[in-house]
């Protein structure tokens, strides 16, 4: 039996979205609900996939199925394709599984021909008929065949000039008829053949044009941006035409069942009487507010309000609808879930629960976790934004809006901040050296680096707006050029980290408002049983406070290295690194100990009884080295060495592939004294806070980059020895744990062994992804671009967890780890811990918690609750 | 029931080597064969492991088991510990599973005390007894307790001075008695307590000393060098003393049952009458050739010859034996398989087969595959080598011996070679830029880089001697210093790539001789059915010829990038890389095409009907960039660009982690035209040779660094399109294949998908190991050192395949790959393909072939045959 590739509306329903596309599935659903929808049929997404896989060929089988539906449509409408008395005219629209604005425009009035136009004329008058005819020829030639539409527009202009007409209003039926003939000639001249008047041929052409529009650059770009797989394909909807421009009792409109910006509960939209859909959006005539329809067409108004309420209840969401009134009869052309602001989404959720349409659990599912971000960061004043000049666009690396004066060096940024300026730090790329400069900045702009570059990761953790990988930037001397403008140090620019846009000048921002609805909603989220815990990554008491405020129930990652960059610490850190002997190193470490201890005390005092996971020193040591001569000279003097000696040691730290070099627990193996100092700081701080405040401090000491069980045991023993001695000497009970980051592939493969010496695992999916792919995130910019352009990758695996490859390693690690140690606590602290689809995966594979930057905690909590509610777990 | 930790000799046998150690198992075996072995017992390796894991504690249980064996030994000998009439005296020797020269010295005469010495005096005279006593005190104090033995030696010297004696011969029984008393005083002064005369306490002390000697730096170093796991532990052998120094009818000797250097079939060794074992090796008296024993002690001679023949037949290998004759009675103290040169090992194999002791298949198992290397490379003249001054020692990266004048730059090396000089290239590290300089060199010495650094890998492929990672080298201006000497450019040094030693001066070498035995032996190897195929990695016709000569049955890896470094090609390559447009790039590629084609024609003509796997361009493009100003200037001129422009483009290729950057098939995605050119060269060359010579050329086009199935398909389609067109146009049948390197972890995890579009897999275990470990081989030097010093790693995973982690990924890939594509051909072309234990693993997991550098082909063939003979396969 052949596969069914074409469905009449009545054969489908809303659950068939993947096969029929969103638009088609909803038309089918409404048809079966008894809602007045013009009849039609749908060519499926599978037909599109087949078409693409056959090298753009529409099979005879599919054509035959289309023909059969045409016959049904003719029967139900009583019209016929090309009938000179009662012609069947249809619209052809694309309809993918997800809404795709990058796709083909609609073709209206398909089926038009010299014969059909005379039929239409009998029903609606000559002028209407020939106007429709010329519109169809132009639309079909442009959209389906690709003839330049300006040739057609020029012909009309010339015709009107010749007749001395001022506007289209002056054109008579005969004029439009003459234009139709001219249009057919333009087509013939361009294509070398006649414009087809065969309705079936037109239809096949329009359908393949929809399929082809799946393969345009625009479509690729849109899919890339929205993570839509190429394989989904698009469906095509063929629907009987209805006309809103048949006179005073006809009309058309586009509405939301509630306000998609504010969330207010009123039908929100516009309509025009005696008009076609395109007129409403074109702006030639000013459309009316939907509520006025009550006066213009009371019966249709009443019917529409009833339908909209019915649909809202049916779909349990705000609907985005199109309607047409033809000679006083209402037709619904489309309904779909409305896109709205995060603020409105929250309002809908709250109201729908109040109205009894949704349960709290259902309401939780209606809010896109990613959208919550909008509520947590400042935004540009929308009015002011319109006037802004866009200089360029790059990766939206960390959300929010910011404006400030441009500075190129961290130290200049700090000085400017001290003068009370707002600062935007602009760098080729950032390094740990820039941390303090980043901290004082409103926003960060980098020319290099992807979504998980240093700048992006740190900015997100700080909640600071960041646009990264803006490769069009050219740096000059104290300037940069972008979008044809040269920006000097001290000039204002504005960044939108949610869109990736860079603007000239100082655009005012409005602060985030966490309104009452947010609290109510997160309260429901909190109630969801079985959700994974959500912790935050936090390196300071300030971060920890923010994390608590957003509802984190622990710290999943404290990076101890960030603590070493303060001006009063970095010289000591450098002395430690450049020591020639263990004794020298220990002396320098002794100086660092009090600082590190103070940091931990601060974090513990905020987190109180909640767990705090602290990672031992992780980055390669050369990241701490100075780059300027003066610092080297000062350092050498301080250490009683020659500048040469100090530089030699610094140079010897250089690595060809530092990402896979001397870092992580490898540092603890080479320099156990570093791990000893850090353990001492962690444990002594915990003991002090426990004694002074009485909190049940729960430090979790995390060993990074393990790949071997003996290595893990080696480092664990270093930690354990110090910790046990301190705890015994203090005479307190302290429930600390020792665990490991799981971030290199081998660690996953031997997780059964590692779990034997670990109390917890925390997946470091940033590094795990890089190593599993053999792809350095710092160097991935060009590669990812080429891969996405060629549809090899649909998205950036460093932003969205690769469930197939990296996920497989995670599953291996979880299964093996829990086999050896059933009590093993497992979490994730990579960037993916704050990305909703990745969080869904984490829930499925049974993680105990996710950890992400404080600003993503609400997102993660919502995503975790949503996953828990769908309840699907792997075995 | 408690575990048995102590075995009497009669309770063991040769198969219990892991538990009883090599020496102990053989003593047990001989005991049960009825060979005259002094009785004794063995404390097991498991006791050692327990001792170590308990923090160096000998449990009461083990002590009890030892005591029980002492009782048995007393019963069988009729002697008693500490008996003043007939004292039991024992030797205590270490005995690990593998021979470990780094271990504890033997303790003789244990059980000695004031009481026992009087008993011994009754049996062997006062002088013998007290001489033995003082020897024991010194030996025990030194070896077991750690008292400085010079104190004892000084005491004897002083005593002899006082007595005006010239030598030990002058010492009387009373003198030795007095010395014994002095020795006990020295011990007491040093240790603050009396020398123990309790035989059991002495024994426990000696046993723990043996265990402790497993933990010395020497032992660690030896194990590291020989890949012996720490967990094996050592056993301890306790054996009744016999004396070769009891007079004219006593004696002792050390022999091989055949000549271990030449392989000649004659008993080879030395003995001394009236002497102890140490006298034979000490060189004070000149020992006699074993054959003279026939005159000195005809009965013992005859008995020994019979025993040696019996043992050779029993163990089916040449034996390394120790014997003692006590008052005319022969005792065998040890037998073990003899260590011998590769040449001798071959001779034994040939002779044992002739003598019917071994089958050919058994003989194949007797030759250590690694040792074959010795036969394939030049060696230093042993006489001349003794006079050489060692400057330093580093990694034995590529075997062979070489001497030549030092040059620091590839171009200087080339110039010197052209002047007819022999050259040693000395570099910080090498890069592809140095290839031509490496080719003209006799040997290569680098200061940085491990066993799989660029220098090491390329040198092994070339069969050129290389010592790498010699970190002690300090470079000066046209000089380097090492081992306190400063070597100038043009000075001679000599390198031993088999030991890693660097010598001063020009040490003569002797060429390798592939004698007739080698051919016979490899003939047997060839006959082993079911062995994996062995291919070679070869980048030139010269390499390919060498590969064929050594018995390769195909090329498993041709690296196309090496072909681009010739002086007449590199400028074109650079132009290609620095092109701004695809058109520019295509023009440069057109210029490279004829060169690349010529390379392939050369290789095909050598390999004829055998398969040749050619890998598409793999390294990051910046590796091809010049580093000197002049070349940039010339390049800019040639390309009609400014120097700035060219440098900007070159700089933009810089990557932070190039190993995980824009390389491998990622280049083919970004620049399909490169893959197209290479495919054209591969296929056109194949068609031409097929047409002109009639060979059935079998090119296998290999896509490197794949990690995604769409990526694989994308590149495959580029290749396939070009290949199909060329083959169709030529009108020939060409059986080419398209396959993938499997070298990044994700490729293993999704191998089922990749196998759907691949005809073969070739594991690139160099990169796979690096990424699975997250460890860059270029940066691993310091890390590996620290890891081996701390017994975290036993060996270098880049040299010896990590079967636990990397091997697990390989098994996943094989299983998944064959599931999708049962005909999938799977090989390995990483460095591990020439390492015997890794080859064994490859056989077990069912690989179709291994590929290695030509010089390792015989090793790989032998290792493959050995694996096939043991026949163990997974599932």
Q: Mind explaining what this structure looks like?
A:
The structure is a homodimer of 875-residue chains. The first copy, chain A, is built from 35 helices and 31 strands. Chain A is α/β, with parallel strands linked by helices and 875 residues long. In chain A, the strands form 6 sheets. Chain A has an 8-stranded mixed beta sheet with strand order 12-22-21-14-15-16-17-13, with helices on one face. Chain A has an 8-stranded parallel beta barrel with strand order 24-25-26-27-28-29-30-31, surrounded by 7 helices. The first copy, chain A, has a 5-stranded antiparallel beta sheet with strand order 1-2-5-3-4. The model of chain A has no long low-confidence stretch (mean pLDDT 91). Chains A and B meet through helix 26, helix 28, helix 29, helix 31 and helix 32 of A and helix 26, helix 28, helix 29, helix 31 and helix 32 of B.
């Amino acid at each position: 039996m052949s596969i069914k590739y074409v469905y009449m509306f009545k054969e489908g329903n809303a659950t068939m979205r993947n096969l029929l596309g969103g638009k088609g599935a909803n038309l089918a659903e409404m048809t079966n609900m008894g809602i007045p929808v013009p009849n039609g049929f749908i060519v499926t997404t599978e037909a599109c996939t087949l078409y693409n896989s056959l090298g753009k060929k529409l099979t005879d089988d599919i054509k035959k199925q289309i023909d059969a539906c045409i016959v049904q449509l003719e029967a139900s409408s009583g019209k016929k394709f090309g009938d000179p008395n009662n012609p069947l005219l249809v619209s052809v629209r694309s309809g993918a599984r997800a809404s795709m604005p990058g796709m083909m425009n609609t073709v209206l009035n398909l089926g038009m021909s010299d014969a059909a136009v005379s039929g239409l004329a009998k029903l609606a008058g000559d002028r209407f008929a020939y106007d429709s005819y010329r519109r169809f020829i132009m639309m079909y030639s442009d959209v389906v065949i690709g003839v330049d539409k300006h040739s057609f527009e020029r012909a009309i202009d010339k015709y009107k000039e010749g007749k001395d007409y001022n506007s289209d209003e002056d054109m008579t039926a005969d004029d439009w008829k003459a234009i139709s003939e001219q249009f057919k000639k333009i087509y013939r001249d361009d294509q070398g053949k006649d414009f087809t008047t065969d309705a079936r041929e037109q239809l096949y052409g329009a359908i393949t044009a929809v399929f082809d529009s799946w393969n345009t650059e625009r479509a690729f770009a849109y899919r890339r941006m929205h993570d839509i797989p190429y394989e989904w394909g698009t469906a095509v909807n063929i629907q009987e035409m209805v006309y809103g421009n048949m006179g005073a009792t006809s009309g058309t409109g586009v509405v939301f069942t509630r306000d998609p910006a504010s969330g207010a509960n009123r039908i929100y939209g516009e309509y025009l009487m005696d008009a076609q859909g395109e007129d409403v959006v074109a702006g030639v005539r000013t459309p009316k507010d939907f509520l006025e329809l009550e006066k213009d067409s009371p019966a249709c108004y009443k019917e529409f309000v009833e339908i909209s309420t019915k649909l809202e209840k049916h779909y349990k969401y705000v609907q985005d609808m199109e309607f047409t009134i033809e000679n006083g009869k209402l037709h619904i052309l489309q309904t779909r879930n409305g896109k709205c602001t995060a603020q409105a989404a929250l309002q809908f959720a709250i109201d729908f629960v109040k109205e009894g349409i949704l349960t709290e659990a259902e309401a939780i599912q209606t809010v896109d976790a990613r959208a919550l971000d909008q509520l947590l960061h400042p935004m540009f004043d929308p009015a002011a934004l319109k006037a802004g000049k866009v200089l360029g666009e790059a990766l939206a690396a960390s959300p929010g809006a910011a404006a400030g004066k441009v500075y190129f060096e961290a130290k200049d940024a700090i000085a400017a901040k001290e003068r009370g300026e707002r600062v935007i730090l602009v760098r080729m790329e950032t390094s740990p050296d820039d941390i303090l400069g980043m901290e004082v900045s409103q926003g960060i702009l980098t020319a290099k680096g992807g979504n998980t570059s240093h700048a992006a990761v740190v900015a997100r953790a700080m909640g600071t707006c960041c646009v990264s990988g803006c490769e069009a930037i050219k740096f000059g001397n104290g300037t940069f050029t972008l979008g044809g403008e040269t920006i000097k140090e001290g000039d204002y620019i504005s960044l939108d980290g949610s869109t990736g846009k860079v603007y000239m000048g100082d655009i005012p921002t409005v602060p985030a408002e966490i309104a009452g609805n947010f609290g109510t909603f997160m309260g429901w989220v909190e109630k969801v049983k079985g959700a994974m815990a959500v912790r935050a990554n936090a390196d300071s008491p300030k971060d920890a406070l923010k994390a608590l405020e957003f509802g984190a129930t622990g710290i999943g990652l404290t990076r101890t290295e960030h603590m070493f960059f303060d001006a009063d610490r970095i010289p000591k850190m450098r002395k430690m690194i450049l020591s020639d002997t263990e004794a020298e190193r220990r002396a320098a470490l002794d100086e660092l100990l009090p600082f590190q201890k103070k940091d931990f005390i601060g974090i513990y005092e905020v987190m109180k009884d909640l767990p705090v996971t602290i990672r031992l020193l992780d980055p390669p040591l050369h990241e701490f080295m100075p780059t300027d001569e003066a610092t080297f000279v000062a350092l050498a003097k301080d250490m009683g060495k020659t500048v040469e000696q100090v530089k030699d040691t610094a140079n010897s730290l250089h690595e060809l592939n530092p990402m896979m070099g001397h870092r992580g627990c490898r540092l603890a193996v080479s320099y156990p004294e570093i791990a000893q100092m850090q353990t001492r700081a962690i444990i002594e701080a915990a003991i002090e806070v426990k004694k002074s405040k009485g909190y049940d401090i729960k430090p979790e000491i995390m060993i990074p980059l393990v790949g071997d069980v003996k290595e893990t045991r080696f480092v664990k023993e270093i930690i354990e020895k110090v910790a046990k001695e301190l705890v015994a000497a203090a005479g307190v009970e302290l429930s600390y744990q020792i665990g490991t980051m799981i971030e290199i592939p081998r660690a996953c493969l031997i997780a059964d062994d590692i779990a034997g010496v670990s109390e917890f695992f925390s997946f470091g999916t940033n590094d795990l992804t890089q190593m599993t792919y053999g792809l350095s995130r710092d160097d991935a910019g060009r590669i990812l671009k080429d891969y996405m352009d060629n549809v090899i990758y649909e998205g950036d695996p460093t932003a969205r967890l690769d469930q197939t490859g990296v996920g497989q390693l995670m599953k291996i690690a979880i299964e093996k780890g829990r086999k050896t140690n059933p009590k093993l606590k497992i979490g994730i602290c990579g960037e993916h811990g704050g990305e909703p689809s990745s969080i869904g995966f984490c829930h499925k594979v049974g993680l105990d918690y996710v950890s992400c930057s404080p600003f993503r905690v609400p997102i993660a909590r919502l995503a975790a609750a949503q996953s828990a509610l769908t309840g699907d777990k792997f075995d």
